[in-house]
Fold this protein.
Amino acid sequence: MRARPVDLGRPEPPYNRAPMPAYFPVLLVAHIVLAVGLFLPSILLPFALRTRRAVAESPNQFVRLLLSMQANGPTLIGIGLALTGAALVLTLGGTLIGQPWLLVALAIYAANLLLAFFVQRPNLRRLIGIRAAADDRAWIERAKRQRYVSYAMAALVGTIGFLMTMKPQLW
């Protein structure tokens, strides 16, 4: 005699319940790495401005990697992100697209992309190549504002991560 599963009062999610293919974890990790990688330079580079030297002249290899990602990566990372996202939807089933938590997460991601590309990147581009004197108040204020934008972007990425992992019932 088989034991009946305990009903916790939560409805079954409507998406595919078939066993996951072996490549699913790799696909999921690749998607997450690309999604975070698209924002990583915009979130972290403002903190390199604290040194008051031109960030482009930094001897730090990680800062140089972030600068390279900022300059050359968005198109390639975006294409990879779109491809892995489409593959995830195909793997999990098309009904996943209608989930409220996913729609909210995608809207937040789009807002974060707009913030990164139209606010953070242009302002960072202006500040990255400039050396600031210790008494340059305007530069210090702009660098500080860019760090605040980074905090906001990081909070949005965290919210997306929460929605993707918890999958709350929103409506």
Summary: The chain has a mean pLDDT of 83.
